[in-house]
């Protein structure tokens, strides 16, 4: 048995210093975008990473609890969780913008309420929502008459249509996959969205608006624009565009529609 009294005192550990002449920068990302993603969303993070024009743009993501179904009631329940989710976004770091990634949720909860929740934690960050970003994008194109495509059930579609009309847009056609389950929304293929977009358009529409951050519309937005010969605005595309520009990045992005390429 070891006699504790005989154990030698441990030597103080000392490493070799290597940082005497090292110069620090501000860390990864000149343009830093915070992203609040629904817990059951498969699409937004991938879309944002794919649309980055260069490595100067850094995306930092957190998740917010959400139910499997997309209904007005379930969307409303997310509101009190927004501040808690925001607190997890690199708490000691600077963020230029923070985007709440739910189109229908941003309509149901309202921009002002979402912004208040986010700014209660990060007052310096510009708040972005997909519906307000989409309206800004549509205004950039001068689009007043809209064809609209969504994945939602009609309870949610009615709220979207009313919001667009209250914002001064004329909805000349409204089409939907009528899906309630978020998993099924994520399972919609790019080809399915492309074909639905062709059916949803109308000759008198100035633009096509594709709602919902959960569906993979970004990957086919260029194809849809070429086929229709008019601007196409999708939720994730518009949200990223506005977040990018608000952060101060004016780089052109190819492959994701006229919005990111020219504005």
TrEMBL record:
InterPro entries: Iso_Racemase_Enz_sf (IPR053714), MaiA/AMDase (IPR026286). This is Arylmalonate decarboxylase. It comes from Roseovarius phycicola.
């Amino acid at each position: 048995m070891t006699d504790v009294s005989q154990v030698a005192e441990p030597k103080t550990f000392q490493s070799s210093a290597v940082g005497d002449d090292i110069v620090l920068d501000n860390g990864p990302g000149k343009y830093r975008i915070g992203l609040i993603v629904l817990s059951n969303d498969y699409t937004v993070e991938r879309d944002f990473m794919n649309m980055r024009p260069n490595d100067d743009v850094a995306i930092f993501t957190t998740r917010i609890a959400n139910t499997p179904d997309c209904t007005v009631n379930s969307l409303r329940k997310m509101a009190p969780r927004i501040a808690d989710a925001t607190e997890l976004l690199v708490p000691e770091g600077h963020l230029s913008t923070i985007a709440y990634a739910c189109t229908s949720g941003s309509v149901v909860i309202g921009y002002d309420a979402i912004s208040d929740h986010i700014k209660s934690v990060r007052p310096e960050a510009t708040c972005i929502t997909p519906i307000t970003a989409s309206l800004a994008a549509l205004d950039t194109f001068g689009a007043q008459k809209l064809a609209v495509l969504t994945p939602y059930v009609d309870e949610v579609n009615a709220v979207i249509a009313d919001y667009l009309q209250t914002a001064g847009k004329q909805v000349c056609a409204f089409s939907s996959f009528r899906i309630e389950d978020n998993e099924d929304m994520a399972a919609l293929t790019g080809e399915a969205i492309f074909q639905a977009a062709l059916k949803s358009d109308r000759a008198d529409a100035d633009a096509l608006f594709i709602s919902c951050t959960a569906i993979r519309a970004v990957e086919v937005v260029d194809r849809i624009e070429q086929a229709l010969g008019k601007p196409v605005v999708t939720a994730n595309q518009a949200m990223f565009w506005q977040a990018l520009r608000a952060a101060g990045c004016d780089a052109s992005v190819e492959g994701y529609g006229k919005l990111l390429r020219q504005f």
